[in-house]
């Protein structure tokens, strides 16, 4: 049994040495692969900070600000409102009652064709109330009316059919 133990240990040591030699001989491929892998990882990680920054920026926007933006988009799309009209609706105590900062975030971040909204409002006034171009223009820019900019209102009048 002692002979087996001595041979067994010697055999194990021989196998370890053989493994080290094989690894050393094949090491060129592994080291190249490892360098390639680390280069790939550097490329991957260099893209992640930008993605993380965008995700972090989005995550840092308060929930109420995001809600105000969604509500603003809804008003623009369904009711064809102007930016100023939406801001007033978002902040009104009789409307959405959002804080001014949340409403301003929404207005600053909404992307919409305001001239097209002015045109659709103008068409509605023309068809349902049979108003003159001058009266429609005044209604579109009125602080008590739609609150479109003069440029948006003029676009609407110029494109009424």
Automatic annotation (TrEMBL):
Top-level lineage group: Bacteria
Pfam families in the cross-refs: Lipoprotein_Ltp
Keywords: Lipoprotein
InterPro entries noted in UniProt: Ltp-like_HTH (IPR011434), WH-like_DNA-bd_sf (IPR036388)
KW Lipoprotein (keyword) present: yes
Protein name stated in the entry: Lipoprotein
Residue ranges of every copy of the Putative host cell surface-exposed lipoprotein Ltp-like HTH region domain listed in the record: 64-110, 113-160
Source lineage: Bacteria, Bacillati, Bacillota, Bacilli, Bacillales
Compositional bias ranges of the Basic and acidic residues kind: 30-45, 54-65
Chain intervals for the UniProt region annotation (Disordered): 29-65
């Amino acid at each position: 049994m002692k002979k087996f133990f001595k041979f067994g240990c010697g055999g194990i040591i021989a196998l370890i040495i053989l493994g080290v030699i094989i690894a050393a001989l094949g090491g060129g491929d592994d080291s190249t692969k490892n360098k390639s892998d680390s280069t790939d990882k550097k490329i991957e990680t260099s893209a992640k900070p930008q993605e993380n920054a965008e995700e972090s920026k989005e995550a840092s926007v308060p929930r109420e600000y995001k809600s105000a933006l969604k509500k603003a988009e809804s008003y623009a799309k369904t009711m064809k409102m102007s930016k100023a009209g939406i801001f007033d609706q978002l902040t009104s105590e009789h409307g959405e009652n959002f804080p001014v900062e949340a409403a301003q975030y929404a207005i600053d971040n909404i992307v919409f064709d305001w001239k097209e909204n002015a045109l659709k409002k103008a068409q509605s006034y023309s068809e349902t109330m049979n108003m003159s171009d001058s009266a429609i223009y005044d209604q579109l820019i009125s602080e008590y009316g739609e609150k479109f900019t003069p440029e948006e209102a003029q676009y609407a009048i110029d494109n009424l059919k």
